[in-house]
Amino acid sequence: MPHIIVKLWxxxxxxxxxxxxxxxxxxxxxxxxxxxESLSVAIxxxxxxxxxxxxxxxEIVNHxxxxxxxxxxKM
Length: 75
Hints:
This protein has a single domain, classed as Macrophage Migration Inhibitory Factor (2-Layer Sandwich). Helix content is 44%, strand content 16%. It has helices at residues 14-32, 48-61; strands at residues 3-8, 40-45. It has a two-stranded parallel sheet. Helix 1 links the parallel strand 1 and strand 2. The radius of gyration is 14 Å and the shape is globular.
């Protein structure tokens, strides 16, 4: 625990995905004090044509209360 799931369009290299997972784990360890061994990271590639139906509507539009970074807003 915890298990982190990242959803993105296909096309990123295995190296890029591994680097992202490594950085996510590093930040969790630093921010929350979890041990590296307790974390898992999955990456799900969702084709662009399926994004609205499988991700945007069900996870973003229908659950804005869960978002800590909303699309369209710069950090």
